[in-house]
Every structure is written in C-alpha cells, then in structure tokens.
Design goal:
Layout: H1 3-28, E1 34-36, E2 39-41, E3 59-67, E4 77-78, E5 83-92, E6 105-110, E7 120-125, E8 132-141, E9 148-155, E10 163-168, E11 175-176, E12 194-198, E13 210-219, E14 226-234, E15 238-240, E16 246-248, E17 257-266, E18 274-287, E19 290-303, E20 320-326, E21 332-333, E22 337-346, E23 352-360, E24 365-367, E25 373-379, E26 384-393, E27 400-414, E28 417-432, E29 437-439, E30 448-449, E31 454-462, E32 468-477, E33 480-481, E34 486-492, E35 497-506, E36 510-521, E37 527-539, H2 550-555, H3 562-590, H4 597-613
Parallel strand pairs: 4-11, 21-28, 30-37
Antiparallel strand pairs: 1-2, 3-5, 5-8, 6-9, 7-8, 9-10, 12-13, 13-17, 14-16, 14-18, 15-17, 18-19, 20-22, 22-26, 23-25, 23-27, 24-26, 27-28, 29-31, 31-35, 32-34, 32-36, 33-35, 36-37
Helix pairs in contact: 3-4
Length: 614
C-alpha cells in the first residue's frame, strides 16, 4: 500500500475524532452567555419535553360469558324473566399494560335488553399485549329479545365521549333465547248434536205393504259435521228394499240438514203392532285442531197392523211333578238300605216324549244296585208313572232330613215346533245316626274306709261314625266329699276313647249309695243320659291310739297265750329223748353180749357225752 494513502487515512480518522469530541463538549458544557456585537445575550433555555398524546380509546370484546340456569355444553340459554350473571372481556388496543390503570376507566352498565346493574371490573390479563378487562353485571333479569349487547366505557377525566362497545354474540358463546309468546291451546269443541227424525206416517203398515220413510238429519251443534255415514236396520217385521242400508251424507254446517228416503216392506205375518227403523250415524268434526269422531243413533218407531196368526201364542210348557213318594215307616239309619218309591205326573196340556229320569243321592245316599237313569217313550197330558229306586244311606251320612234329587228331561211338540224342557225335583229323606257311644260301669274297690279317698273311673269309647257332643259326668249322692262332683268332657269324635275319674272320700262307716250320671247329645243331637248306681260298704277307721296294758286287756276279756309258751319247750324235750334212745340202740348192737344192759346204758350216755364234746 502506498505511503500517501496510509497518511491520508490516518489524517481522516484524526479529523473525525476531533469533530466528535467537540460535539460532546458542547452538549455537556453549561450554557454561557454570549454576545453578539457586544451585546450579551443569555444562554438559550431548553424547553420541557411535551407529554405524548394519549391514543383514543379502542376497546374490543374478546369473549362473553353468561351464567344462566340452562347453560351447558358451550350453549347458554336465557328465557324471559330469568336472571343471570353476564361477563364481557374487553381489551384496550390503544394501551399496553405499562400505561394501563383500571381506575382510569368508567364502565357503565349493560343496556338494551337488560335492566340496569352495577358492573364490576377486574384485570384478567397483563403483559406486552393489550390489557384484558372483565366487566361483570351480576343478577340481571332478561326481559327482552336480541343477540347483541352494548357496554358503555370511557376514560375518567377525559373529554372524549364514552365508547360504546357493541358485542356481537356468536352462538358458540351465548344464545339469548327470547321466551316465546304462549300460543293459546286450541279449544276442544263439543261433539255436534245431530237430531234424527222421520216423516209422518199416514196409516199403520199392513202385511206385505211397502212404505217410503224420509229420515232427516239436522246438525244442532256449533261445529261442522264432516263425512257423515248412516246405517239403517229394522225390526223383525220390516225389510229394507233399498239397494244398500248404508248412505254417505253431505257435510252439515251448524243448523244444516239433509234427508234420506228409506223404503221398507212389512212381513207377511206381523206379530207385533210396534215396529222400528234403527238409524246409526257416524261422523267427524274439528276439535282442538284435529279431527275427532262422533256418533248419533235413533230408533224411529213405526206402527203396524198385526195379522190373525200374530194373535196366536205359544202353548204352555208342560211341567212334570212328583205327586207322592215313600221311603218306609221309620227314618233311615246311617248305613241302612231302603227303597225310594215315587209317582210323577205330566201336568201340562201337551204330551211329552223321550222322557229321561235320573236320581242323584248326593253325598248322603248311594244306589243299592241297579241304575239311576230310566227312560220312557212318552207321557200324555195328566198321565202319571211310578218308579222305585233302591238306595242306601251312607255310614257317614249326616243326620236329619237329607235331599234326593230327581231330574226329568223331555221334549214336546208345539204346533210345528219341537222344544226341549227339564224339571228338577228334590225329595227329603230323614237319616238318623246310631248312638254307639259306650260307657263302662266303674270298677268298685274291695274295701273302703271312712275318711280315706277312693277313685271311681268311667271308661268310654265312641264307636259311631260321627261325634257326640256336650259330654258331662256328675257324681250324685250324699255321705261323701269330692273335689269335683261335675266334670265337663266336651265333644268326643268318632273312634275316640278315654275315661272320667271321680275322687271320693266317705264321711262315715256304713252303706254309701251314689249314682254316676253321664249326659250327652247323640249324633242326632238328641239328649241322652246314662246312670251307674254305686253301693259301697264303708268300714270304720282303725284306732291308732292303742295302749298295750295287760290289766286293761284282762278287763276287756283279753288273756295272754300261756299254753303256747309251754308247748314249745315240751316239744324240744321229747325230740331230745327220742334222739338219745336211737343212739343207744345203735351202740348196743356193736358191744359184746355179756355186757349187762345197765352198763351199756351208762356207757351209751358216756359215749354220747364224749361225742357231743368232740
């Protein structure tokens, strides 16, 4: 690089450094007075920097929240008269957080569709972005409609007009639903009343006569009758000659009417002078905004002249009755056999045919051989017939009058018509149950003593098929004491057995007579009594205060048995002598013959003594 260029470069750098130094000194040096043409002028005074202009209010809404009863799933619903808390988040795009103060702003109230409230404001975010303010108006009552809200806001102490922020609400945030004006429910109209009449009848209908009857329908209601359809029918003496008995009528406005002509013909035989045409009408009408169904019917009476045959009435139905019956002279015992004889008679004016007679004994009687059904070809008017049926009263039959049913089935001919009839007759047969209630006589004790208790027992058994009732036992008599003289046993069922005991104490020695009486009602509910007479010999009670005084005993004739005491030792002495003699004889046979008898006698006694000692 040339030397001249290096020199120039260094000189340029030095010059720029000097200029920069002069500039710094002029700024840092205090102002000094300077003079122009000898006039000293004060140093220039620097002016105070002017405050930057405040940007205009620039709020915009970022979200709207409604805390309403129907809120949920991001969709809030307000209805007329409901209260809710409404919060709007605003941002002042003109200022940042460094210069924003909440107290500098005045938020008025929600207006338009909502009543006045005192709004609450709070900062909900800060930072370098525009500040967010949440303005809440609590407890407002919705009274109008619309989907937009307006909020008035201004800076305090500022001359500029308040800014009105109109919040356009999207459905995702809030949907303010106005309460629909209630539409009155359609009123249900009463069903129309349709009057059905006929034309006048010049004369009564005769047999085979034809007549045209005009039937008129009048809507007497306040609702229109739509698509009315009428169907006609007649009584047995008339026939409709029209091609059809059903007619479609035109719609009937209120108080409108229409007519239909019905041609009828009387029958060849008219049995009743009162005939009729039945008209059944069905239609539709408007009620509460929908079609409802209605109906009307009327029986239109017609007079007719009856024919001669019509005066004839059917013959009376013949009846069969039992004139008399018998079962024997006495009531039937349960389990007994008898014959039921009866006579039945046709009391009607017509003959009866195909007569079937059956006998039913019910639960108390059964057939005793043979059959319970009998057949007869015919039975003329006032004719009678006898029948005998063997029966048996069942062992379990109830006592009293019990029924036997006799059923007649038969046919009869009235003119050209055959008819069937039945007749049921009940006969009453008395039944008695045998009294098989048995009571055994009491067993008497061998001895009895005055003052000592004894027991008399009655054993019973019911061998019948039905129970006996109200069984009661009583001890009747005098001269004895008993804890219970009457005992109530009650009802005793069939096949049952038992006993009744009486504890008696005779009062004194001698003859004691009493009667054990048992009363009851037999299976036929008849009172029965059974008595058992009892006669006892009562001995005197022993004297327990006995004194063995010999003198007193002697005075009363008692002597001590002294001979008995003497006999006993005498018997012992004789037995000893006999034993000694037998031993002596035996010893004499063993000794020599020269020995004298007396020696033997002594030695015998000596030996006996020795033997006895040994």
């Amino acid at each position: 690089m040339p030397t001249q260029f290096v020199f120039f470069k260094r000189a340029s750098a030095l010059l720029l450094a000097l200029l920069l130094a002069c500039t710094i000194l002029s700024v840092l040096a205090p102002a000094e007075e300077f003079s122009v043409d000898g006039v000293t002028a004060p140093a220039a005074v620097s002016a105070e920097p002017e405050a930057p202009a405040v940007p205009a209010l620039n709020f915009f809404a970022t979200s709207v929240t409604v805390n309403a009863p129907g809120s949920g799933n991001g969709l809030s619903v307000l209805r007329r008269g409901e209260k809710a808390d409404i919060a709007v988040v605003l941002k002042d795009a003109s200022l940042t957080t460094d210069t924003f103060r909440l107290e500098d702003y005045d938020f008025s109230k929600l207006i338009d569709s909502f009543s006045a409230c005192t709004p609450k404001a709070e900062v909900v975010s800060s930072g370098s972005d525009p500040v967010s303010v949440k303005v809440t108006c609590p407890g407002v009552e919705y009274s109008g409609s619309g989907q937009s809200l307006k909020l008035s806001a201004a800076r305090k102490g500022s001359a500029e007009a308040p800014q009105t922020i109109e919040v356009t609400v999207s459905q995702a945030e809030i949907y303010v639903k106005p309460e629909p004006t209630p539409t009155p429910a359609p009123r249900e109209e009463p069903a129309p009343v349709v009057l059905i009449t006929r034309s006048a009848q010049a004369k009564p209908l005769a047999a085979n006569e034809t007549a045209d009857i005009a039937v008129t329908f009048r809507n007497a209601g306040k609702t229109k009758v739509r698509t009315p359809v009428v169907t006609f029918s007649t009584s047995d003496g008339l026939t409709i000659l029209n091609e059809t008995s059903t007619f479609l009528l035109p719609d009937l406005d209120p108080d409108a009417r229409t007519s239909v002509t019905v041609r009828v013909q009387a029958a060849r035989e008219i049995t009743s002078g009162s005939q009729a045409i039945q008209a059944d009408l069905k239609f539709s009408y408007d009620s509460a905004g929908a079609l409802a169904q209605g109906a009307a019917s009327e029986k239109l009476s017609l007079s007719a002249t009856t024919t001669g045959d019509g005066q004839k009435t059917d013959a009376a139905t013949p009846n069969v009755v039992i004139q008399d019956f018998s079962y024997g002279d006495q009531p039937i015992s349960a389990g007994g056999h008898f014959k039921l004889d009866f006579r039945f008679q046709n009391m009607g004016r017509l003959k009866i045919e195909n007569v079937v007679l059956s006998v039913d004994g019910g639960e108390n009687f059964a057939l005793d051989g043979g059959t319970s059904t009998f057949y007869y070809d015919s039975l003329g008017s006032r004719a009678d017939q006898r029948q005998s049926v063997p029966l048996m009263a069942l062992p379990t039959a109830k006592s009293g009058a019990q029924p036997v049913t006799v059923l007649f089935k038969y046919e009869y001919v009235d003119g050209n018509k055959r008819a069937a009839a039945t007749s049921e007759i009940k006969l009453s047969v008395p039944v008695v149950q045998q009294d098989r209630f048995q009571i055994s006589a009491p067993s008497l004790p061998e001895t009895c003593t005055a003052g000592e208790e004894l027991v008399l027992t009655l054993n019973y058994v019911n061998r019948g098929k039905t129970e006996v009732s109200n069984v009661e036992a009583t001890a009747v008599g005098e001269g004895f004491d008993a804890p219970t003289k009457t005992q109530y046993v009650g009802n005793i069922s069939a096949g049952s057995s038992g006993s009744v005991g009486f504890a008696l104490t005779p009062n004194e020695a001698g003859k004691l007579k009493l009667v054990l009486k048992v009363t009851y009602e037999d299976p036929n509910l008849q009172p029965q009594t059974k008595e058992f007479p009892v006669e006892l010999t009562v001995s005197e009670a022993p004297d327990l205060d006995f004194d063995p005084d010999l003198d007193a005993a002697g005075e009363e004739g008692f002597s001590f048995p002294w001979p008995v005491l003497l006999v006993i030792p005498a018997g012992l002495l004789i037995a000893g002598v006999v034993l000694a003699v037998r031993k002596k004889r035996a010893a004499a046979q063993e000794q020599p013959a020269e020995t004298s008898g007396w020696e033997n006698w002594d030695s015998a006694f000596s030996d006996d003594t020795d033997d006895t000692e040994v």
